[in-house]
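Hi Y.,

Following your request, here is the sequence exactly as I used it, all 54 residues.
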Amino acid sequence: MLDVANLPDDIVALKAMLVAAQKWEAIKDAQVARKDERIERLEKLVAAFKHATD
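Below is the corresponding structure, written out as tokens. Let me know if you'd prefer a different format.
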């Protein structure tokens, strides 16, 4: 958790921290999207395998 007492008073530094946090969030979102796509592909493969073995 972010401790407000440890934040810099410098506006430029605060803006840099905000930009970095937004970039990190975008990276996390992209990673989650890739994982979701991979899960969907695997679920389709499992369904196809089940169908082929019936």
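The chain has one helix and no strands.

Thanks again,
Q.
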